[in-house]
Amino acid sequence: MRDPDPRVVLGLHRSRHERRLLTGALDLGITALDTSTNYLGFRSHEVLARVAGDLLPKFTLSTKVGYFPGTDGVEHSLDPVRLHAAVEQSARDLGREPDLVFLHNPEHSLAGTTVQSREALSEACAALDGATAGGLCGAWGIATWDPTSLPPLVDTSVPPPSALMVRAGLLVGARTLDAAEALTEAWGLGAGAVWGMSPFGGSTRAPVWARVDPRAFLRDGGRYSHTQAAFRVAYRIPNVSAVAVGTDEPAHLGELVGALAAEPDERAVGEYRNLLRDRLRAQSA
């Protein structure tokens, strides 16, 4: 079965939420938009509705819940009542129900024994499952920066999500890749249900990209920039059908859309992933 065509998701983490960015994305054929309740100082939803409310129906819109304003600025919680209320508030602030709501980094509030952590995760997932059933959003998923603690917690008591978002790209370690694949298998997620994020490890200007040529992982790498190559390879490390990427410049989005035509060298990607696992085994020995 053929994998779905790769998608670019416009992520609003660190974005200024300018209208020109959204219109530029639509002009490029990007119709998936991802934000979170805590982006832009917990104002992302309100600002989106104010500056681009007429554009939002043109996007498949995802957001995230799990972070809340706290006495020290930001706090994380898996309390099911707070999560359900956050989904309700998201729909109100956006002026529409989100198509997808992610449980944001559940690992931040998992502590204690495995049994306690599993119970907390199960109750949080049940809250989002209930919000979906109640029509507050179209579907729910899990977005996790560090998924390594999650696979041991998954059993029949934890409602399965419809989507999973994990870090992707050449800078992702073997533990994260293995955990993402374990969760994908445990939850029976199809090829189109796994998203990637942070394909450049935070910035295309990071020193590593001056030392590494990611075009080696493409069959026709000479036709593309280093940035384009790193972005395209992120769809294979791990295997994801969509990658959320943030920028405030439509021109940067256009460059990334152009990278989708590139063809990854599957053998080179496979060898790289084997090297990551070999290095992990050597470190653990």
Summary?
The protein has 285 residues and is an alpha/beta fold. The protein has one domain (7-199, 234-254): NADP-dependent oxidoreductase domain (TIM Barrel, Alpha-Beta Barrel).
CATH topology: TIM Barrel
What is the CATH architecture term? Answer: Alpha-Beta Barrel
Q: For this structure, what is the CATH class?
A: Alpha Beta
Shape: globular
Oligomeric state of shown chains: single chain
Q: Point out poorly predicted stretches.
A: none
Count of separate DSSP helical elements: 10
Report what the structure shows.
This protein is 39% helix and 16% strand. Strand 6, helix 5 (114-133) and strand 7 (140-144) form a beta-alpha-beta unit. With 285 residues, it is of the alpha/beta class. The mean pLDDT is 94. It has one domain (7-199, 234-254): Alpha-Beta Barrel (TIM Barrel). The chain contains ten helices and ten strands. Strands 1-2-3-6-7-8-9-10 form an eight-stranded parallel β-barrel, surrounded by four helices. Strands 4-5 form a two-stranded antiparallel ribbon. The protein has helices at 19-27, 39-42, 44-52, 80-94, 114-133, 174-186, 208-211, 226-233, 250-259, 266-284, and strands at 7-11, 32-34, 60-65, 67-70, 73-76, 100-104, 140-144, 163-167, 194-197, 242-246. Helix 4 (80-94) runs parallel beside helix 5. It is globular and about 50 Å long.
